[in-house]
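FORM 7B: Structural annotation worksheet

SECTION A. Query
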Amino acid sequence: MKNILITGGTGLVGQRLTQILLEKGYAVRYLSRSAGTTAQGVQKYKWDLKNQTIDQEAISWADAIINLAGANVGEGRWTKKRKKDLYDSRIDSVNLLHDYIKAAPNYKDKVFISASAIGLYGFGTTDDQFTEQSKPANDFLATLTKDWEVAMDKVASLGIRTAKLRVGVVLSNEGGALPKIAKPIKLFAGAALGSGKQLLSWIHIDDLCRLFIAALENESYQGAYNAVAPNPVSNKEFTVSVAKELKKPLFLPPVPAFMLNLLLGEMASIATRGSYVDCQKVIQQGFEYEYSDHQEALKDLL
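SECTION B. Predicted structure
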């Protein structure tokens, strides 16, 4: 496999994954809302979710498709419209890919690797540990992710090797959760959130990209995998570690959960609740993490 088609390629993970793939000698192209070429020289094929169309050449060109498409669940209150956008950007995109893959020549020779999310499991206590066999929860994020994976399973039903990576909190200095946590700490206004006991199942962006590539290159990857680091950490401990790495003091009390609920509504659950997600299945695949401890990851990123 040399030709890799990426959806969501201009996002946080997509940009870093593209860089690593190109360094490894792969050819990379994107599915995007407009055709053309990115500033980095990556060719873009057009797809239109509203009208359910894809430039057929894109699917024919690709040996493998890496699906990263999906609106950011951490941006904006979860209004009825926002929830629909989150849903459509995930489920409609995979269903569209399914239809065009099915119509492509030699489609069974292709590989489909897709992002999913640990939101499938809902939230748990510090004693709960979620594996790939754990049952989905019933909240909004879990239902969203469950339906997302149902669409992915339709692709797998075509006889195509399909791997679903259930991604945790991605740590990067270019975006995502870490800069949002670090910014108030730099301004001497950092604090733990809620009880501070909620667990953060995280992964360094480079390990996540390496895991996508492992799933791409290793034919034994099939089905669901928890894309998280081996050692979850509490919100309080993580906040303290960020402050320590930035050499800034923490002296404010934790931000009460009710305040976050007032500010963010239902979306506050992402910050005030957590889960311990197990990654033993990934380890058993032979994958070796570069960053298995959050302090090592923070030292690299900050």
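SECTION C. Observations
The chain has a mean pLDDT of 96. The longest strand covers residues 111-117.

SECTION D. Sign-off
Analyst initials: ____
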